[in-house]
Amino acid sequence: MATLTRNTHGKARVRVMRLHHDGDRHEVRELTVKAMVTGDFGRSFTDADNSTSVSTDTIRNVVNVVACENLALDTEPFCAALAERLLGLYGQVASAAVTAHETRWTRMGVGGAPHPHAFVLDGNGKPFAEAVAVRDGRTALRSGVSGFTFLKSTGSGWADFAKDPYTTIPETRDRVCATSMEAAWRWRSAPAGGHAAANAAILGAMLEVFAGTYSHSVQDSLYRMATAALEAVPEIEEVDLACPNKHYLLVDLSRFGLANGNQVFLPTDEPHGQIECTVARG
Ligand SMILES: O=c1[nH]c(=O)c2[nH]c(=O)[nH]c2[nH]1
Known about the structure:
Elements: E1 9-22, E2 25-39, H1 42-46, H2 56-69, H3 75-89, E3 93-103, E4 105-110, E5 113-121, E6 126-134, E7 140-152, E8 177-187, H4 195-212, H5 218-232, E9 236-245, E10 248-250, E11 265-267, E12 273-280
Antiparallel strand pairs: 1-2, 2-3, 3-6, 4-5, 6-7, 7-8, 8-9, 9-12, 10-11
Bound molecules: uric acid.
């Protein structure tokens, strides 16, 4: 005897670009979407009964239709519109979860002026949004950024930590600090100036703390970065941060008669420290 305890289905990696014409000025919004539904679908798993199942192929079509009908929406309201459309279309759907990662195209500057329809890829991190729509409830929204990478070459240390017979790392009050951040924040209401501007303010507040204050540890920086994000944008209620500590190892040049005064490093990705926290209001 076995019991189906969870099930969901939908379409993942649906790539769609929305091109909004504002006169001659174009806006491009490229997303990779995952749209999943839960509800009365258990019998397709347990009894080979597909009679209630919405085809994932159909879900892909709905993504494109909602894209066409919402060319100018930011990622967050677009995800919410799509999740709510799936809920509205199919009575057997109890909840719809939509996640969209953005491939960000930033407007090209040509001859000192923003170009109306030419863009360059912004390769640092993928912003994402996530909407979960349920019946008789508010659509829950989260935003964030995946793989946002930044570094500072001083103003960071790791000292006064617990020591034991296995400890070999020396204390330092001057090191390179680099990470590729996974960050997410939960909305309690829509931000006054729109999600895109609020997301930029959140990242700006976090980077200001990272760059502008001494870091006693990645832990210390993350807590203060998340606190600054909560202060910068009152419409978010919780921030999740997960950061690898991408170690830059000092190269030993003493055998060549050279001192290495924090100047030559081996950049490494693995293994890396992994520091994570969630910071909420209150
Ligand atoms: O910022 C840091 N946090 C740690 O927990 C840690 N552990 C370690 O070896 N180096 C560091 N650096």
